[in-house]
Amino acid sequence: MGSLADKIEKYLTTEEVARRYRTAPSTVRYWRYIGYGPKGIKRGRRVLYDPAELDAWDAEQAGGAAA
């Protein structure tokens, strides 16, 4: 089991998710607003994304073909 800092470090910010999907951070925020896109968790004023959740969303979007 890692330290709290290690656990927090694995999460991605909205800006990092936008870079991953080659879109603007405002688009990622809009996806969250309309209930589309990968699930994020709210920590204070920030929304953070678990990379495993992004991978699961990618697989869902590809019809389960991606692993």
Question: Explain this structure to me?
Answer:
The protein is mainly alpha-helical and 67 residues long. The protein contains four helices and two strands. Strands 1-2 form a two-stranded antiparallel sheet. The longest helix has 11 residues. The mean pLDDT is 87.
Task: For the structure shown, list the relevant keywords.
67 residues, mainly alpha, 4 helices
Q: Summary?
A:
With 67 residues, the protein is mostly helical. The protein contains four helices and two strands, in the order H-H-H-E-E-H. It has helices at 4-9, 14-20, 25-34, 51-61, and strands at 41-43, 46-48.
Write down how many β-strands occur, each being a DSSP E stretch of 2 or more residues: 2
How far the N terminus sits from the C terminus, by CA atoms, comes to 25 Å
As a percent range, the share of strand residues is: 5-15%
Order of helices and strands: HHHEEH
**Largest sheet, strands/sense/barrel:** 2 strands, antiparallel
Flag low-confidence runs.
none
Major beta sheet, strand line-up: 1-2
Q: Tell me the radius of gyration.
A: 12 Å
- Write down the overall geometry: globular
Helix content: 40-55%
> Helix- and strand-based class?
mainly alpha
- Provide the residue-averaged pLDDT: 87
* Number of H/I helices: 4
